[in-house]
Amino acid sequence: MVRCKMRCDAVTTRIGNAPAYDDSGKHTGYAPRLLWDVEFNVVYSEKKDDENKKFWDATPSGSLKFATIKAMPWALGQEYYVDIHPARSEEVPTA
Questions:
Q1: 63-68 and 79-84 strand pairing
Q2: pTM for the complete prediction?
Q3: Each residue of 18-32: pLDDT tens digit?
Q4: How many Å apart are CA 25 and CA 95, to the nearest integer?
Q5: Which of 30, 49, 74, 94 has a CA-to-CA distance to 60 between 20 and 30 Å?
Q6: What contacts 7, CB < 8 A, 6 or more positions away?
Q7: What pLDDT score does 37 carry?
């Protein structure tokens, strides 16, 4: 596993398409939905004993961008840990 420490630097909204379902849960196509585009960048610090300096020294650059149809749970300017590890097919959630 690799742990990154990142800051939420940008949040924008737009209209996109998302799966639509009827009352029985059957997929009926796609419908316009509000999307949140989120961008995270690695943290930085010049302070010797700062945790962010330790992360910067290990991962000096990088970004993570994605869009979500879920209500935006990330706060602009807030720092987050991002853990990266191999996925196994049995861990993939089903809709």
A1: unpaired
A2: 0.73
A3: 889 999 999 999 999
A4: 10
A5: 74
A6: 40, 41, 42, 43, 77, 78, 79, 80
A7: 93
Residue 95 clears pLDDT 60, i.e. is over it: no
Beta bridge partners of 21: 27
The 10s digit of each residue's pLDDT in 41-91 is 999 888 888 999 888 888 778 999 999 888 778 899 999 999 999 988 766
Q: In residues, how long is the chain?
A: 95
> What per-residue confidence (pLDDT) applies to 94?
59
CB 66 within 8 A of CB 6: no
- Is the distance from CB of 50 to CB of 72 less than 8 angstroms? no
Q: Which residues contact 43 (CB under 8 A, 6 or more apart)?
A: 5, 6, 7, 52, 55, 56, 79
Closest listed residue to residue 41, CA positions, set 83, 2, 78:
78
List the domain boundaries for the chain.
2-91
